[in-house]
Amino acid sequence: MRRRGPACSGRRASWRLRWCAARLCPARRDNALAFWPLYPTFLRALFTRAFTKGIRDPLHGRVRESEWRAAMVSLRDSIVYCHACAAESFYDADAMRATGHGPTCWSCGVEVQLPARIRVGRSVVMLNHDGALYPHHLDDARRYDFSRVAATVTRHPAQPHVWGLKNLSDEKWVVVGTGTITEVPPGRSVALAMGTRIHFGRVEGEIRV
Fold this sequence. Notes:
Helix content is 30%, strand content 22%. With 209 residues, it is an alpha+beta fold. The chain folds into three domains: 10-66, no CATH class; 78-111, no CATH class; 115-209, Tumour Suppressor Smad4. Strand 3 (117-120) and strand 4 (123-126) form a beta hairpin. The radius of gyration is 21 Å and the shape is globular. The N and C termini lie far apart (61 Å). Residues 1-12 have low confidence and may be disordered.
């Protein structure tokens, strides 16, 4: 019978981690350490909690499944593309507040030019050229529902430098700009302008550039 390692629970949890680390392939360990700085602060904090307090005190420190799901969706919403080489990086609001600049591309080393973003409900979504909003973002009763695109980033047909958010839902939006209030019916778009607020029906979003 093949000998098995100790169970990862209770007082033996920390021993289990040391047991696993001692057997971890050095190349895989180095790979994990190399990629660690690429992820946003909120995700690194969650992993740190899961493998420190979550192990020492599972009753009070364990990361729940709902927290992991929310973090993975936030990670997806944080993806940005390097304008120089198109590699994917992540928007990190905490790091930006601390350093005053955006992420550095892990592939080519340039500072990533951030696209517009929208704070909608509890989410911050980067509005890349292929960006989209889903029922998950626009209706608290439909969390984790990505079955249908409700809004998509689109380029103005006559002015390629102007980007907008196209309404693909079944409801009209109410857009509040600088001294203006307009309605955006399904199939129409609103320009991605700084400070524009969009009432999606059940939730409101604000565009930041």
